[in-house]
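ERR on first pass: missing label on line 2. Operator R.T. fixed the label and resubmitted. Corrected input:
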Amino acid sequence: MIKQTVFVLIFAIFLFVSCSSEPDSLFDSDQTLIAMEEEQNDEIKLKNKIIYSIPSPNEQFDLLYFLNDAVKPTVINPLSNVSLYSTNSKKALNFGVYISDAAYLMRYDQGKRVFLDYVSTLEKLGQDLDITKIYGEELVTQVEEIGADTERLFEISSQNYLTIYDQLIENNKGVELALILGGSWIETMHILFNSSKQFNENIEVQGYIVDQRFVLENLKGFVEEYKNDVRLEPLLGYFERLGSVYKKLECEKSNLEIESEDGIMILNGGTTCTFTSSSYKEMKSIINQIRTSIIS
Amino acid sequence: MIKLIHILIISATLWGGYLFSQCQRPSQVISPDYKDGWGENSQSKSGHLRPGDHYEMRFIAQAGIKYRIKATAGSNEFSEDNISFQLVVKEVNHIEKDGKVTYKSSEVILYDSELAGEGEEAIILTSKAQSLSIKVKIDDVNVPAFTTLCAIVLIEAKKAKIEGLK
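pass 2 clean. output:
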């Protein structure tokens, strides 16, 4: 009995003090690098608790909209596919896929009827993931009342994402959240590649896909906090595959320049990376494969 | 005695869960300046920290977007004096010496709330997407030890005029 109590006590203490460690960097791509010296500033020596922030799909599509205003509603995962998802992992991954699709369609003003279809599907899918009280009648009424204000609709979908994030963290559903974020990001990448089309056809969107390496790095850091759960093994495998393609980017380094103007710090320079034709095609193909395995 | 330990563990666990669930969303504590075109960025965070705790929050700054970072901490009443933060970027410099190419990685502090002058804000704009860190610390001089405070890091964002960038 005493042993059991001691075990419970140690376990409880572990729960309270457990910290996340820094994941291996995705980008040890400096092939010309001979030596790397690390300098930590002495002002704040961390106990190494690192928290990874990941931009919401709404934020991602807000930027895509700025770069490319053409919408392709056919690229999304049809809502009718929801009946295919029976396991907890599939439900969580596709919850993320649908959240991204909804954010994409709302950014491109596809209307409240479309949004309400997503509300209905996400409500059903969310029940098994402990996501409750978000997609209820109150939200439906709120959406009905806003009329044709598409900007407000986009704000509501953005707010929903944040509420879901908070609720899952509060309910200790970190694994489900990791799957949702993973599914959401893969779908975002799928939509970005569809907007970017062929290699060098839309340079700006292509550049935005290159920038997604930072999102992948933070996402990997977040998911690794729960890596002992076997449900996350496939997702971490996907990240490894995608990370290995990002290592093939052609990167040109220049020193970072920092200037201050009207109280704003402006960062210029730094590393510029671009796809080669083959790395672009490889990345697009892997995203297609992963996305197909998630939604089917 | 064993029962007492069990009760203490269960109480502590429930109390911890209660505390965590009571930490508000950043925009519920610090109102984003909507009038001036700012909006809450989805990468804002809140959570419970103890005095002396150090946290590093990694977020992604997209090119051409202005970000403003604000932090506060408290339980019922919030104060910027309870928390300090630094905005940091990792810089990799290219050095050539004796025919050898070396990259030296160092952290550059872009903003330090403890050193900032009156009215000086943490506003940043990048010409390329960057991974930035916000290093957060709860004051361990004025906040009593073993107190847990709700720490808020609000990231506001708004689109910038591109012509100012190189």
